Amino acid sequence: MNRELQNSETNPLEAMLHRFDIAAKRLDLDPGLYQILERPDREIIVAIPVQMEDRSIKVFTGYRVQHSVARGPGKGGVRFDRNVTLDEVRALAAWMTWKCAVVNVPFGGAKGGVICDPGKMTQVELERLTRRYMASIMDLIGPDRDVPAPDVNTNPQIMAWMMDTYSMHMRQSQPGVVTGKPIELGGSHGRVRATGYGVGLMTRESLYRMGLDPKQCKAAVQGAGNVGGVSAESLHALGIKVCAISDISGALYNDDGLDMSVVSAHLREHRTLEGLTCGDHIDGDAVLTLDVDVLVPAALENVITQKNAHDVKATVIVEGANGPMTPSAEAILDERGIFVCPDILANAGGVTVSYFEWVQNRLGYYWDERDVNERLEKIMVDAFQSVCGLADRESVSARTASYMLAIERVAHVYKLRGLYA
Q: Both 163 and 218 in a single domain?
């Protein structure tokens, strides 16, 4: 079960498996169940021919991986990005299995991706790509089989195209086949902001656990998109002074605290931090090592590594992104007593409200945003307390406790169901 730590420094699949190994060993997991849980149930690679607007034909590569469907339909986003790899999708699918199990929603884990550069594609080309991708994987997809959602470079409009494509093939409207849809098509109130809102909740609970008053704390957020931007707003609402936020253009810093109303309004209009004058513009990577109480890496994978872990000054790290910290970096931070709220718990707000959306689609009855947020808070706070309780009893980190809790729940379901032969 032991894996080379060095391999997990750059490969997200190896990082996930390294952490899985640690938790499985603590649980004394049955070797047969270990073999089942370490690999995906199924995966598909599809060629996606698209006629571009200049009449040329380009063939894209797409993936859909279902890591586990033992606890319910597969659940996981679809990302459109030029850096998508099969190992990345495999890792993200497994993370979704653990994420759903940690917050105890009845889904398994899945993920999808298409290798493309959406920034260089027209809206017409994106629609053609989306529809052909959905048509190519739809034998694996369905409200009771696998339910895609938005992820990197995908959005409610792309989910609408996916839903429509599936519905046309089924000859009836099937809103429950995807989540993260526009409200008008059966989307849920609160879904767009759910991940960032959940990060705020987990930050609050993490600070309480460390004996810190949110109103006396400073924070830095890496990322200003759907997760990072909303996370910063959520921290500000808690009374935390948000001193820095970054995006691809760099970082904005003000030690007295950024005016988040100005920052948020600017991001909604321009989708970039460029042009803001309420702080100093600094290098984006500097956000990770600022002298703050809370650090929220909410953008990219593997940004905290053994190279910069010793320079991190935050007392609490709440992982808004998937896999922002390598295992070797985490070992350094553990030794330094820094509390890490792990990704499979910290950013589970999105999948939790996706579950709510799926439930509402099946009921045909829809909740208002206050209802959604109250339900979300209860589920995530309960999950945090369960994780920390297990961490205290077993004298392990919150991440290892999260994996232990998730693996135990999934393994228990396999034991109950047995093996079909």
A: no
